[in-house]
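Task card 7
Instruction: Convert sequence to structure tokens.
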Amino acid sequence: MRSSGSVQVQGNLFVCSRSNGSCCCGWGETGRFVFDNSLWVDEWERRMTRNRLHLTFTGCLGPCAVGNNALLQLHGRSVWIKDLNGPEYARLVFDYARAMLDAGKVLPPPPALADHVYERYLPPPEDRYVPLAESVPDPEALSRPDPVCMMDVDPATARWSAKHAGRTYYFCAPACRKLFLADPTLFG
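Output:
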């Protein structure tokens, strides 16, 4: 299998939520912090990390004894996070993810999350890891999506573009171009 021609994000954040079929996360009846998904969406949108970190709401991530749960997958690692029972945890999780994205590697959790990170599965033996797909870097893949809204934009027909750090970015509309030009570093 070969993966090319598509944008490859750097990571995923899965958040267990009641509105997505969770058996324990977000249930006030079981002593969990009740949150609306917008708590996580607002933080994700504010940080403009859509092209680096994908956010997905899911049903049960388990185990229920330590809900509210989240799973952060970055740099080939699954970072399991438990007991996210307060509104401040969305910000803390995104701070942690951003630090790892910026560092380009997995980092120990910050003190505020240290007691919330746990190992969910035993690691696979080092000698048995086999990649499921051959990944071939495509330098043009990142020039297709609008960096603000991630809409697919054909560079050959794009009406709006901008250059930053030696690269040309293409936009679906002038509003996305304007947001990008206000601070291009938010979209890289």
